[in-house]
């Protein structure tokens, strides 16, 4: 990929906003303000068809066709982590996924097929990159790919493969050329491929240089051992293939020859003849004009945001137009011949500026010529900020220049979608970060002639690759908001020239979309329309096999077998234009229901606010939150909305949390901005049934809202005025007119004020809930005022209504016409920051009267002076974060706590259920009282009522609590040892008053077995932790019959000699030192970090000498930070000791120094290569062999590090895990001793 971390932080994403249904693949255009979005149900509506610009902008040149004559259509979102595309002669589209997959989109069926998967290395930006089709594909079926082969050898490879139908024949690979690289550090791969009219192949390569240590200026660190930080060894090296545009002619056997006109003739000493153009930083995307042979190269620039008199120029992105062999000048010059300064990184001493006309490479890392060709000037160059030299470039914003295709008009081509002749010779230059496409024209001397916007009102969400197809349409591959991960809005699109004729808008509702077989699904497409008024027809393919199963606007189909199906609807108008939408149907698995419980849909915010959220998920198969559904699997994405799209910003994991509402550069206070929160959960699927996704999306509105950005209106007009805050004023207001904002919530809004422009008449503004005649929230009187002057009206009090998330209408009343003009609305109060996450717990949930219950409440970020008040559900009340109450009567009760801040505002509520039942008398006995067993064997516990109780049928709870010293003590306990619940069995006693429970432990452990007659509740007071004090369990229930026993498990190896260290339920055997901790959920071990501090979880129950330690981990970010500590002494309270005294095997993919990357002996010896799977790419398996002084680290079956210590460290007997971030989790931790003492 093309970026460093800077790309994610400053990038201005331009997103085509889509609304995806549960399992849907189709696109819905978001209105200026989207309609209210509720939790997704099992009836789903999806929309497809043309994505139209918001309105035709005045043409910048008479030669351009108006935007209204083009149409952008989404073809598929099944693109993975998309990198490049290539269109085949039959209009099938090849797409590469950085993770090695080649997909094919078929326009005849709209199906996507996985053609093949290359085994690739995916560290940093490496992986599968460019793809191209041989100019003679019809005869030879060759497809070219540039990729990073898996394994330890650092190189990238250009190969070609036969494409047989939809299968990429990997066994046909011809290795054409290999580019040696370094894989120690990020960045810049390049990797685009194209051909000229003579059949010559062009390949772009990046400088393979890390730029993070040069302050955003030129990376020319010549110190020994700092080679990855010196671009003089690559881009400026005539004997190196990196940082270049290569040009070769591939022969039939896969070998190649050198065309005439390359930069260095064959035989030139210290120079590679394959080089056509050198001095490139990251030429990520380029294209060759098939007519002129000119190459348009987009150059991704460095990071400095301002000029430095001692270092050189700020960042510039470039479009180079290459007409002959030459040198772009990197890393010595940038822009129009602006030189960097030489710099001594060892002493931080600046030198003289480089001479761009007489470049000399005297770096000790240079293996090529010292005297270089002069630096050429680019055609276009621009910084992050607005730039007077090129005012046509949208600004400000991030920077990722891309060299797009040149269109050549073919008058003999029969196509009703080909671009018109006026675009002949246009180069479609585009920006990944800023999301625009420009129509760039050059004259016959390759001098820049014009830069015009192409479809400026259309949105392009991180455009990754552009290519014209055989029918003359423009294909666009969009990355869609990802960062080294598949983007949530990634997709393949096509832009057609329709001459104003548009494809129909296909809309289908399917009910239900999931369930058990046989499943009857009703499909309704009667809401589909055609903007041109053409007659439309409908064809249904219920199973995605390409056959038409039904016709007409409605249809139904019964799915008789479990499985995942993709129902396809094709809507065709009378001109032959069509749109396709798909609905995913899951038979044998129900889609989860996801609900963002707060904040309200339409709640108000200010940038910088911290907003709490809470998500609830239910799934018929998986269960509910806390009972089958792990909140670690729930995500909440935050996006900044602008007009009809949204810019993804961050993703949080968890059912509850806090998000910061961030603004990005480039948007002023007059912009139509909002924030989108989208909660998502993907279930576990079923047998032969793919997992189903559920989501819920809400929209938050800014407290300062420009009036002209209403959702709907009656009677008013919008006019421009230079003194207006935004784009215009709401004008021509007459009595009874209104404007509506949908969604907009009065949640935690106290007052509202208005900015109006007087007309000399005056009137009133009534805010009403849900409808023009809905409940009145507040009324503001607008004085007649002075005509033409702006005044602030209010604030007036707002009465919050119960109906959350519906529209709010501003209804205008008065006498006369043209009452006033409305500029903006200002909402005052907490808004979306009002609701806080509050939890309520009772230490018992079921018991006999009189039942004493202790309640606790907690709120994240509770404001100072806040109070808790309780309604116990039986008419009694209480106060405080801790409260006790005794229920005297049998019944079901709901205890509710309310958090109120110091200003008397309610900030949140929570509740817990208590049931009071008839008493069950008698005593229980647990046998055996004690036992000592090897781990892995089965043990049966028996709980028996005494005969006098006659308790047959009474519910008995049998629980196992396992010593877990590294776990936290529950609230109300500040001493004792925590025992986490490992087992719970609730059953009715048989006729003899007996309940039996067999169980086992996979680890060495100390268990306390508890049995009680707790009416189906737990035997302890609290949640899942028993506290063992010096005199016994401290929180056993005393209001029920209860007895305990003890079991000691001695660790025994499995058949392969491994001892389990983690049982998936507790932290048995582990201790923790330092900040944070580890939690156990869903059988996984999750680090819990606190700030920048670190902690260590270490196994204290057994000492080891020589061993093999195995562990699996899964990461969600390239910045996931952890490690596995080896051979250290008891750290006591010193969290630094394991890293100083022992060795740490690192987990961190993005690093400044390879000695800290995943698989390395941190700070000591770098892993030879990064063998970790990319984020969200699945589980990674470590196997660490420690024998004598030798450490061998194997990751995913690849030996990545071998290190022999001098014996001064690594002499202790313990192993451990680091918690430094929460973006990963562990499982299957075990160890195999290699000698009798370990």
From TrEMBL:
Under Pfam families, the record lists: 3keto-disac_hyd, CBM_6, GSDH, PKD_4
**What's this protein's name?**
Glucose/arabinose dehydrogenase
In this chain the CBM6 domain maps to 703-828
Q: Which SMART domains match?
A: CBD_IV (SM00606), PKD (SM00089)
- Is 4Fe-4S there in the keyword field? no
Keyword vocabulary terms for this entry:
Signal
Cite the GO molecular-function annotations of the record: carbohydrate binding; hydrolase activity
Q: Where is this region: Disordered?
A: 30-70
Recorded source organism is Tamaricihabitans halophyticus
Query: Signal sequence: where?
Result: 1-28
Residues in a coiled coil are none
- Give GO BP annotations, semicolon-separated: carbohydrate metabolic process
Origin: domain of life: Bacteria
Q: Which residues form the PKD domain?
A: 504-587, 836-916
């Amino acid at each position: 990929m093309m970026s460093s971390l800077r790309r994610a932080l400053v990038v201005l994403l331009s997103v085509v906003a889509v609304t995806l249904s549960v399992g849907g693949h189709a696109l819905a255009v978001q209105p200026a303000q989207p309609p209210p979005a509720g939790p997704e149900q099992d009836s789903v509506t999806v929309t497809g068809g043309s994505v139209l610009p918001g309105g035709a902008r005045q043409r910048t040149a008479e030669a351009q066709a108006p935007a209204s004559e083009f149409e952008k259509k989404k073809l598929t979102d099944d693109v993975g982590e998309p990198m490049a595309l290539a269109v085949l002669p039959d209009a099938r589209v090849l797409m590469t996924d950085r993770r090695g997959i080649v997909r094919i989109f078929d326009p005849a069926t709209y199906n996507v097929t996985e053609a093949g998967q290359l085994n690739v290395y995916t560290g940093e930006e490496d992986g599968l990159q460019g793809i191209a089709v041989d100019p003679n594909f019809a005869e030879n079926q060759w497809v070219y790919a540039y990729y990073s082969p898996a394994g330890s050898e650092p190189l990238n490879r250009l190969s070609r493969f036969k494409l047989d139908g939809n299968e990429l024949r990997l066994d046909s690979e011809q290795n054409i050329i290999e580019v040696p690289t370094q894989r120690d550090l990020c960045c810049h791969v390049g990797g685009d491929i194209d051909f000229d009219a003579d059949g010559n192949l062009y390949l772009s390569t990046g400088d393979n240089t890390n730029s993070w240590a040069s302050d955003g200026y030129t990376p020319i660190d010549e110190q020994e051992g700092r080679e990855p930080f010196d671009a003089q060894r690559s881009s400026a090296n005539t004997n190196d293939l990196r940082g270049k545009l290569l040009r070769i002619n591939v022969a039939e056997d896969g070998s190649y020859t050198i065309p005439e006109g390359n930069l260095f003739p064959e035989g030139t000493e210290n120079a590679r003849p394959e080089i056509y153009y050198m001095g490139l930083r990251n030429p990520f995307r380029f294209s060759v004009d098939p007519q002129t042979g000119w190459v348009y190269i987009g150059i991704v620039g460095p990071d400095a945001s301002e000029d430095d008199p001692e270092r050189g120029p700020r960042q510039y992105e470039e479009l180079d137009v290459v007409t002959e062999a030459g040198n772009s000048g990197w890393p010595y010059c940038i822009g129009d011949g602006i030189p960097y300064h030489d710099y001594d990184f060892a002493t931080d001493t600046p030198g003289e500026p480089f001479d761009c006309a007489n470049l000399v490479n005297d770096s000790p890392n240079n293996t090529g010529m010292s005297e270089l060709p002069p630096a050429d000037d680019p055609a276009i160059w621009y910084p992050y900020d607005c730039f007077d030299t090129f005012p046509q470039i949208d600004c400000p914003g991030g920077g990722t220049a891309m060299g797009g295709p040149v269109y050549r008009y073919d008058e003999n081509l029969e196509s009703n979608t080909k671009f018109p002749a006026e675009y002949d010779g246009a180069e479609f230059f585009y920006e990944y970060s800023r999301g625009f496409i420009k129509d760039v024209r050059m004259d016959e001397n390759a001098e820049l002639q014009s830069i015009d916007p192409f479809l400026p009102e259309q949105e392009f969400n991180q455009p990754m690759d552009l290519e014209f197809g055989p029918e003359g349409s423009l294909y666009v591959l969009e990355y869609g908001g990802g960062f080294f991960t598949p983007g949530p809005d990634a997709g393949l699109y096509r832009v057609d020239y329709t001459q104003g004729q548009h494809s129909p808008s296909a809309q289908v509702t399917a009910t239900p979309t999931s369930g058990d077989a046989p499943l009857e699904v009703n499909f309704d497409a009667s809401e589909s329309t055609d903007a041109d008024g053409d007659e439309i027809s409908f064809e249904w393919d219920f199973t995605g096999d390409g056959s038409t199963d039904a016709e007409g606007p409605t249809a139904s189909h019964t799915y008789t077998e479990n499985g995942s199906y993709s129902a396809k609807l094709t809507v065709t108008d009378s001109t032959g234009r069509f749109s396709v939408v798909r609905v995913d149907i899951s038979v044998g698995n129900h889609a989860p229901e996801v609900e963002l419980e707060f904040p309200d849909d339409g709640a108000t915010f200010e940038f910088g606010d911290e907003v709490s959220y809470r998500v609830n998920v239910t799934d018929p198969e998986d269960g509910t939150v806390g009972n089958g559904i792990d909140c670690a699997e729930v995500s909440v994405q935050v996006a900044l909305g602008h007009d009809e799209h949204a810019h993804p910003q961050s993703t949080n994991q968890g059912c509850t949390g806090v998000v910061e509402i961030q603004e990005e550069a480039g948007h002023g206070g007059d912009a139509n901005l909002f924030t989108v929160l989208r909660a998502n959960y993907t279930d576990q699927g079923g047998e032969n049934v793919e997992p189903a996704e559920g989501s819920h999306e809400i929209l938050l509105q800014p407290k300062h809202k420009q009036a002209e950005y209403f959702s709907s209106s009656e009677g008013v007009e919008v006019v421009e005025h230079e003194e207006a805050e935004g784009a215009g004023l709401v004008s021509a207001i007459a009595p009874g007119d209104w404007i509506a904002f949908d969604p907009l919530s009065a949640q935690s809004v106290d007052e509202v004020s208005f900015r109006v422009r007087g007309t000399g008449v005056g009137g009133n503004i009534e805010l009403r809930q849900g409808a023009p005649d809905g409940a009145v929230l507040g009324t503001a009187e607008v004085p007649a005022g002075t005509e033409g002057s702006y005044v602030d009206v209010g604030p007036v009090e707002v009465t919050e209504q119960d109906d959350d998330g519906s529209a709010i209408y501003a209804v205008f009343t008065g006498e006369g016409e043209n009452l006033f003009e409305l500029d903006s609305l200002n909402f005052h109060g907490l808004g979306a920051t009002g609701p806080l996450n509050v939890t309520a717990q009772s230490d018992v949930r079921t018991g006999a009267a009189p039942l004493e219950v202790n309640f606790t409440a907690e709120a994240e970020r509770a404001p100072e002076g806040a109070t808790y008040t309780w309604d116990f559900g039986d008419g009694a009340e209480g106060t405080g974060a801790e409260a006790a109450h005794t229920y005297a009567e049998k019944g079901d009760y709901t205890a509710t706590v309310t958090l109120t801040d110091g200003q008397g505002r309610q900030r949140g509520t929570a509740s817990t259920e208590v049931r009071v039942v008839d008493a069950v008398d008698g005593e229980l006995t647990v046998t055996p009282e004690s036992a000592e067993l090897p781990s892995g064997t089965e043990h049966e516990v028996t709980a028996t009522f005494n005969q006098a109780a006659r308790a047959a049928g009474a519910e008995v709870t049998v629980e196992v609590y396992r010593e877990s010293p590294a776990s936290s003590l529950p609230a109300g306990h500040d001493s004792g040892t925590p025992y986490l619940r490992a087992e719970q069995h609730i059953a009715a006693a048989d006729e003899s008053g007996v309940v039996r429970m067999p169980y086992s432990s996979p680890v060495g452990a100390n268990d306390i077995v508890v049995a009680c007659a707790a009416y189906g509740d737990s035997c302890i007071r609290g949640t899942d932790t028993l506290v063992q004090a010096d005199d016994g369990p401290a929180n056993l229930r005393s209001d029920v019959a209860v007895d305990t026993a003890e079991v000691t498990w001695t660790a025994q190896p499995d058949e392969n000699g491994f001892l389990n260290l983690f049982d998936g339920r507790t932290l048995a055997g582990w201790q923790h030192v330092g900040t944070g901790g580890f939690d156990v959920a869903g059988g996984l071990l999750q680090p819990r970090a606190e700030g920048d501090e670190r902690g260590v979880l270490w196994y204290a129950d057994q000492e080891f000498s020589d061993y093999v330690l195995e562990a699996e981990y899964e990461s969600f970010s390239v910045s996931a930070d952890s490690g596995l500590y080896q051979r250290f002494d008891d750290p006591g309270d010193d969290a630094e000791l394991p890293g100083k005294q022992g060795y740490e095997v690192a987990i961190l993919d993005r690093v400044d120094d390879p000695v800290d990357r995943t698989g390395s002996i941190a700070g000591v010896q770098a892993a030879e290569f990064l063998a970790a799977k990319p984020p969200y790419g699945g589980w990674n398996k470590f196997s660490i062999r420690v024998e004598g002084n030798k450490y061998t680290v194997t990751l995913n079956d690849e030996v990545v590090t071998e290190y022999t210590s001098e014996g001064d460290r690594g002499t202790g007997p313990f192993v451990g895990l680091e918690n430094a971030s929460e973006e990963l989790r562990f499982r299957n931790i075990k160890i195999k001793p290699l000698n009798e003492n370990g």
